[in-house]
Amino acid sequence: MKKFFKVFLLLLVGVLIGGTLVFLYIKSRPIVTIYEVVAPSINDLDKTTVATGKIEPRDEILIKPQISGIIDEVYKEAGQKVKKGEVIAKVKVIPELGQLNAAESRIRIAQINATQADTDFNRVKKLYGDQLVSKEEYEKSEVNLKQSKEELQAAQDALEIIKEGITKNSASFSSTMIRSTIDGLILDVPVKAGNSVIMSNTFNDGTTIANVANMNDLIFRGNIDETEVGRIHESMPVKLTIGALQNYSFDAILEYISPKGVEENGANQFEIKAAISVPDSVVIRSGYSANAEIVLARALNVLTVPEGVIEFSGDSTFIYVMTDSVPQQQFNRVPVTIGMSDGINIEVKDGINATDKVRGAEKG
User: Fold this and answer.
1) What are residue 281's phi and psi, to 5 degrees?
2) Extended beta strands in 129-208, E state
3) Residue 233, SS3?
4) What pLDDT score was predicted for residue 9?
């Protein structure tokens, strides 16, 4: 029994020593790293920048009243089309008490003068018929009567304007009827019947009755960083994508770059505008958020590799080109000359050709 136990211990020690030797041998062997192999390809590269902004009509008009008062009726609402001269709302004038009293007093005086002039004219007319006064006296009396009637009419018109904002004789030109000044779409009607409105003057911008815009002429308005503004110019093509219309992209032409930057979040931003071409089948609403992609540089039909395979060392760049794959991968470090990058692929101008195989990422 003791002999058997000794043999078992010897075998156990032998197994442990053998396992340790095998483990140490495996650990001492060099680890072979396997890399993905990438083939260069011929591609077109575009270096782009993206400006964020919104879609808006080129012409958006704020319709304001020519008189102050209270909104009596609103005839249109947001979303409706309107023609130039079409009535949007009606303003009821609230007369100022002092002006009203003065206008009523003027009518009473004009009425007295007109009555007296009529009496005088009838008297002179009778005397002229009896040939007791000259024709000159008769004509003066007639002119005086006409003037007094005209003054009475002017006083009555003045009272009507103070009370109603219009006169019966000029109702077609009423300033109480708020009309659109352009053909377009009503974007907003911020007032309701009963709201007070103020006319535009030197000290006040006036109350906006409606926003009207021509939605057939839209522009993109956005901002671009100062690091890229020097690389763009008017008339450059722009590709627009609108968040609310994810299945569409629109062509546009850059038509304006602000000469002055504005600081936003610690960076200088320059405003840009681009005219949009919109198909008739697509409806775009004012205020849609959009991104404008502008091509800053383009390289056509060039040899490219993924940017991740490039090794940067100071001012030099290198690529590892495969020289053998059996029994294991072998690569040669080759200096290359690179060109434009689009952020994913990069142009290789010199150092490799399209038939080479280059080292990519390490396989897991």
Assistant:
1) -80, -10
2) 177-179, 184-188, 196-197
3) coil
4) 67
Torsion of CA 11, 12, 18, 24, to 10 degrees: -170
- The answer to whether 274 touches 255, Cβ cutoff 8 Å, is yes
Residue ranges and CATH numbers for the domains of the chain are 35-46+300-362 (2.40.420.20), 49-57+215-296 (2.40.30.170), 63-87+179-213 (2.40.50), 97-164 (1.10.287.470)
**What does the alpha-carbon distance between residue 137 and residue 142 come to, in Å, rounded to a whole number?**
9
* All residues at 6 or more sequence positions from 305 whose CB lies less than 8 Å from its CB, including other chains: 38, 40, 41, 319, 345, 346, 348, 352, 358
The reported pTM is 0.61
Q: Return the SS3 of 280.
A: coil
Confirm if 305 and 359 have CB atoms less than 8 A apart.
no
Q: What is the C-alpha separation between 234 and 270, in angstroms, rounded?
A: 13
Q: Order of strands across the sheet with 69-74? A: 177-179, 87-92, 69-74, 196-197
Q: What was the pLDDT predicted at 172?
A: 46
What pLDDT is attached to residue 275? 94
Between CA 240 and CA 293 the distance in angstroms is 6
Cis (ω within 30 of 0) for the bond into 190?
no
To which residue do tokens 């800053």 refer?
296
Question: Which segments in the chain show pLDDT lower than 70?
Answer: 1-15, 18-19, 21-32, 94-101, 103-104, 159-175, 364
What is the spatial distance between Cα 344 and Cα 362, in angstroms, rounded to a whole number? 18
**Two structure tokens written together for 272:** 């840009």
